[in-house]
Amino acid sequence: MIRDSETLTILLDSIRQFVDEVLIPREQEVAETDAIPQDVAAQMRGMGLFGLTIPEEYGGLGVTMEEEVRIAFELGRTSPAFRSYIGTNNGIGSIGILLDGTPAQRQHFLPKLASGEILSSFCLTEPDAGSDAAALKTTAVRDGDDYILNGTKRFITNAPEAGIYTVMARTDTQIKGAGGISAFIVERNTPGLSLGKNDHKMGQRGAHTSDVIFDNVRVPASQLIGGIEGIGFKTAMKVLDKGRLHIAAISIGAADRMLEDALRYSLERKQFGKPIAEFQLIQAMLADSKAEIYAARCMVLDAARMRDEGRNVSTEASCAKMFSTEMCGRVADRCVQIHGGAGYVSEYAIERFYRDVRLFRLYEGTTQIQQIVIARNMIRETQQ
Ligand code: COS
């Protein structure tokens, strides 16, 4: 945890400088090579970016949720692939172990994630279980001191790079829904674990996803998260509550960047004898975007502070994710419009961002799933 505002300001300034001076100039290279340059990955390790959210006792920085979203506002200003590379270790790939893991599991795995020695992935989604995550079919059958896993996970971020996977699997096939699901830590080199080919995505080149296939994968019972069967779905939902706030914050950073670029373009581009920024129809798009980013930022900071106070933020995290990612989509669309035809060609970053940010409205729960979570919580609270 950052203990004083001065230290936090220094950290945020150094990340902003890293984004401006190192990451933004390398964006095009990442898009062209579909890879994070290894020297950049090494710099990220050196800055401690893989362990921002992991507590100090495991070698991380242990930032609070508010500090995390403020860091995400900065990291969001560049290609999402950079953030994605460090994102799983700080979020969905580590938080399940942190929240519900046994002391031995935390001690064994978290230091490696904090240092960036290994990457991690979160394996929930399957070919037939996306939004309906509790319908997952991957099985984990107890066999002596082990469990044997079988099934396929889909669209798994950082799967090709990961050293460990948090895998949700059904330990009780008699229970069709959430109660039969358990979470496991599975190491990459375990026999029977293989990867599909990398997915060809609409955007976010440099961030990789693939299937993870389990064919009689034998996992020691000591790697059942928390050592308890049947709590894996709840672990996944708690991980997602936090992850959704993080994605909301990243969307705000990306919207900020797109608007910065569009503002600069509108000041440089002249039509009808003056910069297009002087036309009120352009100004309306700039102003609407600015106001919506401001609203989203306030919402995310408020929800983050609530989580830091130990409150249940399931509703607020979904509100923030829904509002911020939808806002980001609207800002992307307006910023392409401000660029005119130039916004449709790859010479300008906005063309790439327009495709990259589309994913924000889909992963870690679609907008429609956020609506379901919000409304269900409202109904439940009223009926209590
Ligand atoms: N924190 C803790 N526990 C939670 C929780 C949360 N945020 N949300 C749900 N739970 C618990 C519920 O309390 C319930 O426990 P009990 O049976 O003991 O009451 C259990 O988990 C099952 O919850 P629920 O009945 O709401 O499950 P559903 O199958 O109806 O589905 C949704 C819930 C749709 C919200 C869930 O499947 C979901 O989030 N889907 C989207 C998945 C997703 O985001 N995928 C992205 C891929 S991962 S990058």
Q: What's the arrangement of secondary structure elements?
A:
Layout: H1 5-33, H2 38-46, H3 65-75, H4 80-90, H5 95-100, H6 103-115, E1 119-123, E2 139-143, E3 146-157, E4 162-170, E5 181-187, E6 193-195, E7 209-220, H7 232-268, E8 270-271, E9 274-275, H8 280-308, H9 314-339, H10 349-356, H11 367-383
Helix pairs in contact: 1-3, 3-7, 3-8, 7-8, 7-9, 8-9, 9-10, 9-11
Bound molecules: coenzyme a persulfide.
Coenzyme a persulfide (COS) binds at residues 92, 122, 124-125, 131-134, 177-178, 233-234, 237-238, 240-241, 314, 363-365, 369, 372-373.
Oligomer: single chain
Principal-axis shape: globular
CATH architectural group of the largest domain: Up-down Bundle
Percent of residues in beta strands: 5-15%
- Order of helix and strand elements from N to C terminus: HHHHHHEEEEEEEHEEHHHH
